[in-house]
Amino acid sequence: MTGDLGTRQPQTVDADGRSIAPVPEGVVFRDLTTHTDARGSLVELFNPRWNWHPDPLAHAYAFTVRPGIIKGWGRHAETEDRYANLFGEAMVVLYDDRRGSSTGGMIAEVPLVEHHRRLMTIPAGVWHAVACLGSRDFVGVNFKTVAFDHMNPDKFTLPLDTDRIPYDFDRLRSTPA
Fold it and tell me: φ and ψ at 49, to 5 degrees?
């Protein structure tokens, strides 16, 4: 409805506050608990006992995205990314163009913020980009399913403004409250 009240925004969460936004097939999340006391905080990032992902931890690295910067588009043919967000605010934009995927053609926006730390699986073949939305660096950790091969990288990229992915990053740069 539009008019004197403005435009009613669509539902984004269920009654328990969980996002109802669809994500590409194979994208999986696990909330991370931050323990805080008078000394500081601790967040456990990865534990194989969680049975969150069938592949072992093979390679890990931290990454940052500076304010106003977008890293992407990238994807992997054989390996999966498993992100944990530590600090800052970012939007991970996903595009599924995998053959045979039940969510083929889907675009999904997934916010990662330090006030809701979680693990996120990005399946092989799903294009993704990370846009820093906050006023300080976004800091994440990636727990790869296979160790990175520097001689033969499983990394493919496209420019942000590619016609191959129907997404306009200007939306993130000028989103109203």
Answer: -65, -20
| Distance (Å) of CA 81 to CA 22, 51, 55, 75 | 19, 16, 11, 9
Cα 62 from Cα 52, distance rounded (Å): 20
Least Cα distance to 90 among 35, 169, 145 occurs for 169
Check whether 1 has a pLDDT greater than 70: no
Smallest CA-to-CA distance from 28 within 46, 52, 49, 48 is with: 52
Contact 96, 104 (CB under 8 A): yes
4-49 pLDDT, tens digit each: 888 888 888 889 888 888 898 988 888 988 888 888 888 888 888 8
- Residue 45: Cβ-neighbour burial (10 angstroms; 0-12, 13-18, 19+): middle
- Report the alpha-carbon angle 167-132-166, nearest 5: 5
Could you give the domains of the chain?
A: 29-44+53-167 (2.60.120.10)
What sign has the CA pseudo-torsion 151, 74, 99, 145?
positive
